[in-house]
Design a protein that fits this description.
With 358 residues, the chain is α+β, with helices and mostly antiparallel strands. It is 34% helix and 18% strand. It has 11 helices and 14 strands. The chain is globular, with a radius of gyration of 21 Å. This is Gibberellin 2-beta-dioxygenase 8.
Amino acid sequence: MKKNPTHLRRPSAPSSPAMSASHDPPFLRRYGSLFSAASEEEAPRRGKGGVLEECELPVIDLRVLREEAGSRTACSAETASASAEMASASSEWGFFQVVNHGVSGELLEEIREEQKRLFRVPFEKKERWTALNESYRWGNPTATSLDQLSWSEAFHVPLSNLGAHDDAEEFTSLREAMRKVASAMLELARILSAVLAENLGCRRHLFGENCSESTCFLRLNRYPPCPFSPNTMGLVPHTDSDFMTILHQDHVGGLQLMKDSKWVSIKPNPEALIVNIGDLFQAWSNDVYKSVQHRVMTNRKAERYSIAFFLCPSYDSVIGSCKEPSPYKRFTFKEFRAQVQEDVKATGYKVGLSRFLL
């Protein structure tokens, strides 16, 4: 008779001080039945596809590209090379890393410390909080299986709300750090999207016209230690419902993406920012650039932090295409989000772009 695997047994008591910390969400109390109901057959199904060795994403040096974007000088051979590398990575991987990106290390360290302080607020207070515009979320309220459970907590904040001061003054410095990071990442996203648009023969400033602080989001993520690691997901497999995402992660690791029908574990590089193509950019590029499925796996002992910036258009913006004909019908960002939410509510999973194929 096979023994019940450790990652599927519900512990009788928290297995580490971190699990008993008052600031951690009560994952076991809320979702314990999902672990209890899991069978040995479910474990390989949740990890289907296997995981390749740890890989490093393509690295793009933005120094010259940013300098020329600021001075509006003619494109040099070095810039053309970086642009071509970026376009190739966006097509082959859907992900790439950037260095010399213009977001200072001091600023990223500042918001990381503010982020840690924020998540150490007692869970009961975070859950009832109106701070940061009631943007706190954890787990998956509608999860009916472990496939749908994300062992993580987050604050998902519209940039337009960062100017509000309806919460305790103790987090004034957090808001200020978030505003500075959001501004820097918005500028970076505009540069990157302009380069990728130009590579397809389109106007450089298209995304700058449609994406602004009124439509974009900043998400602060924390992945608590998990006694069921490495088979529990910190974030379930998904693609991003935006044009582009810029991610800063710590040294812990856990990010994986789907490549060649297999999960690839991404080697963390705290000095770089990770950029990935979203659903809207794939549709707009007529599938030249790929919005790739990705996930985060938990760690048994270490907590993981990340900060994600989402470049989004206004809700009424029509997501057309760079060239006709397009494989997709025309739709607005609002229609896309509504369809995603409807699918998740009905099935527990995001369907995404295939819903809008002609």
